[in-house]
Fold these 4 entries.
Entry 1:
Amino acid sequence: MVMLLLPMVFVDPSGGGVSEKENRMLASRPALTDIRKSPTDFTRRFDRWFSDNIGLRESMINLHNHFDGLTTQSHYAEREGLFLLVGQQGHHYFTANGRLTAKFAGKGDLLSDEQLSGLVSRLKEINDFLFKRNIPFIVMFCAEKETVYPEYYPISIIRGPEPVELDRIVEHIKTKAEIDVFSNRQCLLDAKESFLVFDKYYVNRTGITHFNEAGAFFSYQELIKHINKYFPEMLPLPLEDITITYDENEVAAVLLKEPHHRRLDSDFFDNVSLAYSLKPEFTSAFENNDLTLPTALFMRDSNFGIMPPRLRLSRFVPEHFGRTITIHYENMQYFEDYVELYNPDIVIFECAEWQLDVFADYIINTRLLF
């Protein structure tokens, strides 16, 4: 009984902190008054808050992973408190405490049927809202390493069937919501024939949980190809305009020739409503030498980029826009304000594959006025 009750005694009553291990915001406790508005939604949010903020959570996760690793032939390795899968030829994989391993095996759902239905409905509403303002809308999902490099996963973990759930979700949203939605999976599958697009080994937390700089470049090219439908003069930078190198740890670095944009100071957002602005990767804005170019508004996660050296998509995308404003999707409750404030010429939502359920909840639960 003590073992069961002790974590409840030390639960974080408010939540909403930052998890360094998982590279995300932990869920906040919903207001008790919300139960009247939607008991189902309140229950789901309460469960997420409790799971994220229960006392001794990290210790229990570490203990679970330790014993789980013993039962899977010691495939797990620990780096700075983060548990990884060690695959074939030494490849490291982020596990998200087992969620991504279950997904790889086809035993875990990225989204529940209710979440997928709600996400489709809300994305359609957002698309209609932007269409009335003549603003194109694109949704981009970024695949995880095991979705791009399944061949190096531990052979004892049986791979799930194709098409993978990410592909099924993209196709479902595209069909039901009738919006421009895609994932970068295929472009990375094509690029990996010549380039390593995810770090092979663990170097740091942000490296193992995202595509590398080379993967960012090919993902950027795919994104611009979609944007080209709305701005025909906008073409992605060719491979000849960059230099891709790898260090002794096979970590990619990309050198862009003659960049034409600069990052704006953080005070650009001083008068903007932000629910989460704790880290530089949550908000960033860029300005091009040519301010006559279109303005882009991104609601995104850390795949877009953080401070150097992990710039990722932010190294290339701002080359094409007069201003590129990027805000984490956890600030979705102010989305309508951002559209009115920045008057963007295009809006792009971006989310990592493994965070699709979190992304869906933020989109679904945002009480927008339109």
Note: The chain has two domains: 2-55, 113-365.
Entry 2:
Amino acid sequence: MTGQDPGASALTLLERDAWLRPDPAATDVTHGYPEGLAPRWMREHHEHPPAGFASVPPGEYEDVIHGWFSRFLGASGAVLVPSCTMAFAITAQAVIQQPGDEFVLTDTSYDSYPRLLAALGATVVYARRDQDGNPDPDSIKAACTQRTRAVVIVCPDNPLGTVVSPGVMDRLLRLCQERGLTLIADHCLAPVNPLRAHIPLLPKLAARRPVSWAALGDTGKMLGLAGTKLGVIACPGTLRPRIDAAASSWFALLPSYDLAVIAAIVSDPRFAPYLLELSGRIGAAFVRLREEIQPPLTVTLPDAGPFALIDAGGAGLDDATFASLLRDRYRVLAVPLSWFPSGEPGPETGVRVSLVRDGTTITRLIAALGACAADLAP
């Protein structure tokens, strides 16, 4: 990734290039979209959308997709947009009142959000995590000023995989209620739950509270249909007019094909069992990593989500050197943790790998990590 614009996202560029021109000899574990895991019935929906779908009013398909997210998130009504990243940008735009308004994010944050906020004229302020990897409510409270407009959390977290505890979520809701802030929760990884963690979903916890909130979702992390995906924004009625106004400036007309295919999939009775199977596959890959990866490499498993962290600190490597070694010697494409923004960047020694892959890819990943561990061993 040398020679790139310093304002660009190295993670996004890597994911884009690996998707556009995949190297068949490389093991790509960068992105969290399911790859090679779509069952035949899902591929049939993708390859053969419902007959006459282009003549069906798009709102009919939207209603089906709204229904699924309403049941999952516990929120009636939602705004559908092309991606979760756009969902965040629209939500931030709806919350910003004037240039310089502040958003509090957690250290080692999902890398697109700080860049989007900066592009929208907002100021990013980072808060610490607690010892369990949760956003630290005390640090978030201390970071708030008169210019603060929102607190942003990702649950399950990306890249660390932590799940915000219900107690922490409740404290953040109370803080936002007291200060008139909006709590924004990215829940796009919540349907992928390999270790059966309890994931507190913001709409359910915020129900009947006089607090501003927005919950973001995504179909791409569930389906992995080569770009056929949608993002979703759920919010209370008090915020909805501002969300609709912000969304109108993007004028994102959703393709009838995408709507028809996704509506057909989420309404198929095989969809719920598929999500369980997908989570089971990831869980099995977690177990293999834990059992087969040897020192000096170590594995950190998440509370939920499709990612695991591989640490090379025992070999004395920083994360960028470790990622370069994996890429150049073992043909593994992974993401250094230092690529995720932080208020106080410190030394990192781990990389993020995605386990939403078929068995062959996981076997190649484990073999490459095993060879790396053997080569790095004293």
Note: The chain has two domains: 10-39+271-376, 41-266.
Entry 3:
Amino acid sequence: MRLKLVATGLLVCMGCSHAPPPPEAKKAEQRDDWLLALKSDLELTASNDGFQGQVRVMHAGKPEVDRSFGDTSCLAIGPGRRLLATVAVALLVQQGKLGWDDWVERRLPSAARTSFSSLTLANLLTDSAGMAMPKDLGVLETDLERLVDASAKVPLRVPPGTLIDPADERPWVLVERIVTQVSGQPFVRFVQDHIVSPAGMTGTSLAPNPACPGGDRGMTTLEDQFRFIDALRTGKLISPETRAAMWQPRLPLGVGSEAAYGFFVRTRENQRAVGINGEGVSPPAYALWLDPDGSDALVLLGRTTPKTAHGIRTALGEFYALPPGPPSSSAPARRSVAR
């Protein structure tokens, strides 16, 4: 994610093809004007729709956008928990205790003789498990663990690896169970000891927090999300080789967008970004994207409606030329795993 300015390119292209390119001073002035407009849009969206949270964009080693809106305490980690789960798997792979393509039933005995027996760890990590929703949900709708257990009793809706559904949280419950089973530690403890603490994420906890709305899956801070990014880049958590395997595109989603393990990969010409948006999951105001080959990064964290979160991400994307993102629901995948 090289964070190049879309608007500058459009303004240049609008001129005569034979006109000389604008001087660097003019380009900088145009960029400053558009950046001011972006910040104004963010202020307007936040004030009109009640967004409470933070957004920061690091460009060339400096915070180009760094804003807080409303009450920034009690910010739920939401989809960021998936990224921690992915790194937890990567650590176990690096230790030789897991394989990316291990069968779920091999690592999780409770999955044997259920619909999950045809799933691999790779299916879970690429959001392509294809789980069906059991009928007569009742109280299961508010109990994710029980919903997963009930889902194991019904056939998959599609073959594994053929449908991407990033809004489905159920595969990530299985990922956490596998980490617990293989590591011999509760998932929350393993992540705390091997990821959160080494990365210096002092404001992050995956334990339920009844005092905070939406805190049942854990809390975090903007600073901690950037500490997590830095720890990934510097090899503090996993080796460069393991990180490369984690970020390797696995399933095509569309032009310029692919699914990796736990992350999505966006490409446009020589630009590349890895990260995730909080599309369809709670809380919706979450986005983390980074340039794996440089220092640029973007984090959005907060509480708001899906519409407002989408509007803020759109404003940032239009300014920073982010390649197209993954779909919010499902898309066909073209990958099969031979058993």
Note: The chain has eleven helices and twelve strands.
Entry 4:
Amino acid sequence: MATIAQSKPSADAVGFAAASFALLVARICFASDFLLFGSRKFYDPSIIYKLIDAHHLPGELVYPTIVLQIGCGFLVLIGLQTRLAAAMLAWFCIVAPSIFWSDHLEHLSRDYAAAGGFLLLVLFGPGVLSLDARWRVRDWIAGLVPAVVTNTTLIERVMAIARVLIAFPFLGDVVKKLLFLGPQTALYAQAGLSADIMYAVMLIESALGIAVLVGWHTRMATAVLVLLTVCLAFALRNPGYDVAVFDPGVMLKNFLNRNAATFFKDVTTVGALLTLWAYGPGRLSLDARNGRLG
């Protein structure tokens, strides 16, 4: 039976320290979203309670959701029992958006991308900058489902699925721009950006989204998409936080800012891209076929 080491990138591929740092930043990106929105649900569960109830589900599901988001978000942040926490969050990022964001492609696709990043954490763990690595904690996923870390065929297929999920928001955004060209052009204009920039973004998202999908020059593509996602997050989806004044009232307003959701979806997408950059596209990719797999 092949081991996980055969699927993980070598230090020569991206640099051990660089990959470890990228995984740390990725975990911070993931955790920031889940800790923030889990805490907001804890502060006022009524909004999500009503949303769940409106979808003909028990509104009380908001309470285990709070525990899941805060608990697993914190575990991912510190890198403790990371595979278990990432598995639960991957499940959450597929199931919950499929129910509640089925009519919101932007949110749906970015949650799916986060799920792709979590799947890679399930396969390979959080990296050396984590409590799992420091304390050599017993890995519950490896113990309960050893195929996750030993079955090469399973690993490579899951890596391919992760790439598809991570590519989804970029290809989905291109489709959305084409279908709703007028509103999307207006959105860019409102941010002081020209239509030409939007078309350039569409070109980049198309080309590099496909590159991630098929695993072609994957690390270059993910690096550029990280930069693009960060730029668009601040240019188009900046929640407008007031960080100049240290005041409890202002801090509470920032905490409850309803415009932060899409911004933090971009943050989790950055986390997924960084995880893919660190671990590479896997052997079911054009990079592997062309001998570029680390």
Note: Residues 41 and 130 are 27 Å apart (CA to CA).
